[in-house]
Automatic annotation (TrEMBL):
Stated name of the protein: Tripartite tricarboxylate transporter substrate binding protein
InterPro entries recorded: BUG, Bug_dom1
Protein source organism: Neoroseomonas eburnea
Gene3D superfamilies documented for this protein: Bordetella uptake gene, domain 1, Periplasmic binding protein-like II
Signal sequence bounds: 1-22
Amino acid sequence: MIVLSRRAALALPVAVPAAAHAQGWRPGQQSRIVVPAAPGGTTDIMARLLAQHLQTKWGTPVVVENRSGGGGTIGTMEIVRAAADGRHMLMGNIGPQAIGYSLFRNLQYRPDSLAPVANVIRGPNVLVVHPSVPARTVPEFVAWLKGEGSRASYGTSGMGQSPHLSGVWFNQLAGTQAEAVHFRGAGPLLIDLVAGNVQFAFDNLTTSIDHIRSGRLRGLGVTSADRSPQLPDLPAIRETMPELAAYDVSTWFGLFMPAGASAEIIRSVNAEVQALLAMPDTQARFAQMGGVPAPGSAEDFAAFVRAEIAKWGGVIRREGLQMDAT
């Protein structure tokens, strides 16, 4: 992870001219970043880091507003309907900004309703269990699930979010069953998981890593193709069983604005994000959380989002998953 962070720093000179060009644009008054999830999760953490950075750079307040519910669609609509003047931003993520387009049959926005500004952080989800679950490996966990029938329950940070779909795909590949219990964000989910009210979860590593390190939760494997440098002893789930060889999920969090935001505004804010990602303090914080910076231009981020929409659209169509946004 440190190596990747250094690469991000090496890429900074490319962003410097953009930053210099964009210094002429500032919002001039209070701005906001909408978080389509409850406080305490990775989306919320990223928004607050960025808000603090922008507030310092711009000299005007940048507030964070949590609008949870509907698998992230409620908060997203808040920004879709907002003025495209640069003062209204969304800290989006893989759920409402990629998975949701295929998952929800009554979605009120489309990919072209938002302007991608900058990716911020990426990382795996992690399979975590309450210590009462008598499994220390993924094969043992699968055997336990099969023994439980449908009695086991797993928490998600929201219907249609990456942790939810991680659990759905895992159960389908492993031939297991469990009841999904949906929460309004990772914060409330982790409270109930640590308390033992649900038995396991596929959570973002960034929000679960401290619970794993403390022993409050037991990590069994990460959802990404490779192991995480922050927890190298934790296997990639796909390496644990032949049935799970195709399993590969990484989550991400990035900044969006309403469609129609000017190229100048987007370049300016993207340049500020690149500056934030290149800071040693940011890189250290991300490493501590189990994520890596995701630097790049707005065009890079837009292409990445299109690829993610196509990937999850294929997965969801093959599985026949559809639900209503609430």
